Amino acid sequence: MPETAPAPAADPLARLASHYASMPPVAAMDIRVDHYDGRCLRVTAPLERHVNDKGCAFGGSLASLMTLGGWGLVSLQVEAAGLDADIYVADSQIGYLRPLFADLTVEAEAGPHADWDAFMDMLRARGRARIHVVAHARLPEGGAATEFAGRYVAILRR
């Protein structure tokens, strides 16, 4: 008898966490979907999985977590709009401001001039749309260790 895929989780955050866990390199990062308020997505990962030779967070891990946080944010927004689309990161820029000697905590949200309504209207009308997302890896004492700006593209599945 063939194996059946598990039923998708009813909660969008559980589905996002499950999707992250379904990709072996991402699963190895031990990412946790920590919080989502409809505007900002917070994801975390333990420092011990991402420590470099200096004892602080590895830059590649920070870049990956911020990219995944932005991807998750766009995915949640598209799902909430009742659409089914593939999401891709088109390009990104990262600034490393200070070393992070604690667990990685990333918050992703729409960029300052991004408009979710316009993004969804374009996605419905043309089958594809793009939006700018910003993310920060937070220091425990406040402020940003790393800043990220990325452009994400959504393409409707037909």
TrEMBL record:
Residues 22-154 form the Thioesterase putative domain. It holds the Pfam family YiiD_C. This is YiiD C-terminal domain-containing protein. InterPro entries: HotDog_dom_sf (IPR029069), YiiD_C (IPR012660). It comes from Marilutibacter penaei.
